[in-house]
Amino acid sequence: MRRKTLLLTAIAVVILSGLTAYMVQQGRFINETARVDAPIAQPVRDVEPVLEIVAEDLGLIWPIDFLPGTSKLLASENSGSIFLIDTETLKIAEIAGAPDVVSSGQGGLLDVTVSTDFEDDSFIYLTYSAANEAGDSATHLARASLNLDERRLSGIDVLYVAEPFLGGTSHYGSRVVIQGDYL
How many whole angstroms separate alpha carbon 42 and alpha carbon 26? Predict the structure, then answer.
């Protein structure tokens, strides 16, 4: 019975987390209160999507995020590699210093998000699955400084670990959303 209760609680947390992230992205939360007057985003019509390939021969890319004021983006493979891709020159450079990840099942390097103050603080935020000494894994949220000249992460600071650590390789899902001063 306790296991079923824990499972149902975990499912509810995942659903509510996803709903909250969606509502934050849609501007439905301002100053920690729901805005009832905020319109729900409507699909764009009469716009022809354009597909432009900016990188090839990379592994399984999960997240991407653009560096502000540039033609560059960060893309990461679930295996743990992070790349800097210039969408104008099409040059690709691997970023050194990424954290060790458990890349198995649904695990790996899950998300990369550039700080809204990146030009001043050079921070990026990462979520990834990582193992403890016993070999069990959990989702980690970390912040790191990105040195663009050296193509290197440094000062990786784990901000949160979604405990408990578990032996499986499923349900690491995460997304970093920055809303004002909140992460």
Answer: 10
